[in-house]
């Protein structure tokens, strides 16, 4: 029995050592797990912060992409407006060119008519040959004062005056017509 008690005592000591060793190992394992959980929490927090930063950067990139898109649309509108303005300037240039050509032709026509009128006036002066003709036209054209030395000269002079008046009237009509055409083309 003494031996049994001794074996039992020794077994109890071994069991106590084993339990103590197990408790120590469990404690170390729990501390290790606790440490790893704490480190895991830190890593999770860092990952959450990194994802927040990434999310902010993505929002900034989206905002910049929208701004670039809006700028591109505004630039396209500006190009369209510039093209429209250029087209309008081209049309205006063409109208101005046409008006200038028309004005040149009108001026040339007026010059020819002026030269023709000048020739007629010279012919009238030659026909009158120094005779004096006084002619007053009133608003109702009913009274005219004519003094001349010869009735046939008066008739010829009257015909020439009427011819000159007709030429002047046609020239004025033509000038009014040309001015009206110029205003229409410019408008």
Describe, in plain words, how this protein is organized in 3D.
The protein is mainly α and 187 residues long. It has a domain of 78 residues. 87% of the residues lie in helices and 0% in strands. The chain contains two helices and no strands. The longest helix is centred in the middle third of the chain and has 127 residues. It is rod-shaped. The chain starts with a helix and ends with a helix. About 11% of the residues have low confidence.
Q: Can you give me a brief rundown of this structure?
A:
The chain has 187 residues and is an all-alpha fold. Helix content is 87%, strand content 0%.
Class derived from helix and strand content: mainly alpha
Quickly count the helices.
Answer: 2
Main sheet summary: none
DSSP strand tally: 0
Helix content percent band = over 70%
Element-level helix/strand string? HH
The shape, in one word, is rod-shaped
Strand coverage percent: under 5%
| Residue windows where pLDDT falls under 50 for at least 5 positions | 131-150
User: Nearest-angstrom radius of gyration?
Assistant: 59 Å
In whole angstroms, how far apart are the ends? 137 Å
**What would the average pLDDT be, to the nearest integer?**
80
What are the SSEs and their pairings?
Layout: H1 2-128, H2 151-186
Helix pairs in contact: 1-2
Give structural attributes.
mainly alpha; 0% strand; 187 residues
